[in-house]
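Practice problem: predict the structure.
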Amino acid sequence: MPNQADFPIIFEHLKKVLQEYEGRLVVTDNTSENYSLNMPFSKKYNKELFFASVTIKKNYVSYHLMPVYMVPDLLAGASEGLKKSMQGKSCFNFKAVDEGLLSELARLTRQGADRARAENIV
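Answer:
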């Protein structure tokens, strides 16, 4: 059984990662258990696109990062540990604080934001 006492710590760490993008991205949810960002309106897709979110669930903290779905080669350099935390194509689940994996996910988020901008997704 995961230590749910760690979940708010994990959530706050990942929320801080996403808050770095508040000026460039649109906050769509900001509660004590969910924080979500959209990319600005995209002319290419004619709407705002989901960028990322962090959510406290019953058994883990979930981090969704859409750029890895849109640009899968972003995961080419990801560690096995980070890949093991994945569920699906763009979701990472954490049950415990792992500073190394959380830092790696922060770098991946930065790379995803840079690639989304470079490839005119936003």
